[in-house]
Predict the 3D structure of the following.
Amino acid sequence: MSTVTKIVPFGSGGRIAETARRTLSIAAEGLNALENQFSDREFSANFLRLVGVIMNVRGRLIVTGMGKSGIIARKMTATLTSTGTPAIFLHPADAGHGDLGMITPDDVVLMLSHSGESNELGPIIQYCKRFAIPLLGMTARPHSTVAASSDICILMPDVKEACPNSLAPTTSTTIQMAFGDALAIALMEMRGFSADDFHKFHPNGRLGAQLVKVRELMASGGDVPRVEEDASLLDATIEMTRARLGGTAVVNGKGELIGAFTDGDLRRTVTGTRHMNEPVGRYMTVQPVSVSPEELASEALRLMHDHNITLLFVCEKDRLVGAIHMHDLLHAGVA
């Protein structure tokens, strides 16, 4: 007898898997219903009004919701904040105990409630009406208190819950989450929110590392190994040893990158009949791979992998401005 059979009295592992599949199928139906809502003229118009109000708010977007809707509201707040829309979560249970004071006349409130009738939302609705704070509602009930009280109401599709008792919020919270992402991305694109802006809000962790630019990690100034093309192999070797990057740039009189000489080039040179007083220009790699300081560090790492090298020189309009080693990229968490 399998372990699954022992702990699940109602059937086999196949039935459990079918339940999971059915849950996902119902969720997909809910997402399709939400997508289809955008074909409705009134829904689309309300969405555009919602975006316009949030875009023009002088203060912050106060996002609120109770229970499972509150959890979705927290996630929505985090996504909005990280993509350029100043937002903060207000817990309805705390609102009536002093936290209403966080709402200023410059703010706008976005209220999530599937039923539109959570009692805890009452004080926030009253406060918004008393002080003329714009109230944006998200609910599936067109005749609910939230819908009637909202200046702009987004009517979510009344979807089937995956719960067999139609009680536990499942599909309804899935589409709330998806709508929050759609709203955040729409606002993000309208603001022209770039990868640079995103990195300002995500400087740490793996995600931040993928958005770091070459200029933030490269060696510059006197730390960049360089010799001119008439320098001797000995001079080039000394320069490589000084910088400890495994190679040196070869530049012309204008400081433009014209070649590279690496440890590998040196080994291949000294194993032949070459004399160390010969000019490095004869043995350098012509037109070496280089990268712009404004390029993403992840792109620099890709170039290294593609060309099987560990050192890239950084140029602005052919002029050498820096050098970056694979170790610098890996140490910074770039992958």
Notes: The chain has a mean pLDDT of 87. The chain has two domains: 3-193, 214-331. The chain is about 45% helix and 15% strand. The longest helix spans residues 13-37.
